[in-house]
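// run 5 | inverse folding | seed 20
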């Protein structure tokens, strides 16, 4: 019997009741996670705001994180920490996903670039909030898995590709927002060029063994760049030949 058939056979051994209970457990865990993130609040929110935007929290409440983690990590799918996804990479901590999403202030018509598709989770959260997400991943098996997963889950406003996200995705730019989910040594000039006037980029900057800071990079209507340091973070490095 092939592995897929074995897994299917094992799942069939679960009664409909047990499978329903598991589904309820995931939903309850997801809601508890959203409450925890809401209570944790946001670092230095924009003027007039006292925490994460409710639509951002609602998106986290809708995206089934357990669909984005390896089977071996299912029990921890709704814990508020990063998890391994293979190839030395991670799915980011949910709090950090909320923070990065909130910082780019997503609007329903926005076109957003993500650098570092990984599992596809951050792209899925963004997809609930904006018009279209373009996402680039440099590791081929992760790019293939995320594309199949997002497609299978019906995220038809996400387009992915294999490539070096340092260079962005010029054909679909300029972007209203850019979310970089791997730490760069500097803000890549091609990403600044692909940000619309009035656009926002969040990017962790710093070395693998040095302190990294999450930066919010804003481009004014006249093209001026203003950078704000948000908080210390720890991300896997942005790789590639650039
Ligand atoms: N956003 C992901 C998610 O929701 O699962 C988590 C991303 S993980 C922290 C960082 C990802 O960036 C990894 O999958 C890594 O392979 C990818 N990456 C690293 N350097 C890259 C580059 N130059 N271009 C595109 N992706 C890159």
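// decoded
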């Amino acid at each position: 019997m092939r592995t897929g058939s074995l897994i299917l056979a094992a799942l069939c051994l679960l009664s409909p009741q047990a499978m329903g209970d598991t589904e309820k457990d995931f939903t309850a865990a997801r809601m508890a996670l959203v409450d925890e993130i809401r209570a944790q609040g946001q670092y230095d929110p924009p003027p007039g705001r006292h925490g994460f935007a409710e639509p951002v929290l609602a998106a986290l409440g809708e995206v089934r994180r357990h669909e984005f983690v390896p089977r071996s990590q299912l029990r921890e799918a709704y814990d508020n920490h990063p998890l391994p996804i293979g190839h030395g990479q991670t799915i980011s901590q949910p709090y950090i996903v909320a923070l990065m999403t909130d910082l780019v202030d997503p609007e329903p018509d926005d076109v957003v670039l993500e650098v570092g598709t990984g599992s596809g989770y951050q792209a899925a959260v963004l997809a609930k909030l904006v018009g279209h997400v373009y996402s680039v991943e440099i590791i081929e098996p992760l790019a293939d898995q995320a594309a199949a997963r997002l497609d299978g889950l019906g995220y038809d406003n996400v387009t992915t590709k294999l490539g070096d996200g340092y260079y962005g995705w010029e054909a679909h730019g300029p972007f209203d927002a850019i979310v970089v989910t791997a730490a760069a040594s500097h803000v890549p000039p091609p990403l600044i060029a692909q940000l619309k006037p009035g656009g926002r980029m969040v990017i962790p900057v710093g070395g693998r063994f040095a302190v990294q800071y999450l930066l919010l990079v804003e481009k004014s209507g006249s093209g001026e760049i203003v950078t704000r340091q948000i908080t210390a973070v720890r991300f896997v490095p942005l790789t590639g030949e650039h």
